[in-house]
Amino acid sequence: MEAPIENDLCTRIRRSEQALMAHHEAVLRTYGLTMTQYTVLLVLAREGGMSGAQLARSCGVTQQSMSSVLANMESKGLIRRETSPVHAKVQIAGLTDAGQGLLDRAYQEVVILERALTDAFTPSEHAALCALLERATAVLVQQTRNATAPPAG
Length: 153
Hints:
By secondary structure, the chain is mainly α. It has helices at residues 9-29, 35-47, 52-59, 63-75, 97-119, 123-148, and strands at residues 50-51, 79-83, 91-95.
């Protein structure tokens, strides 16, 4: 080993992600939402109606997990599901007024952290950090593809 583990970029990225998730989960809990439910509300607000499979991909969860998330959200009146006009077996989820209202209230709390993080850096530092994180994400995505690709030969 060349350097202590605390100097590893992956460890620092993981710690930042864990701190971010802990904050969001604490804030969202006060609204009765999980991170996945909040993400569903955000995606539907931005993209409009989507199938469970599309939402699962957008939220990074399995279709089976999304199915139970959507059933729970529908029972709370946060989303409504209607049969797709294109595929009779596909249900399209959309926000209800209650779902949009809850998202609006929760977002006002979540955005406080975004503002605090933005204020912690100068504009040039913020831009550089965003660019560096995008580059790191691209490397992580590519390495994941390489790790899951069948061996050549």
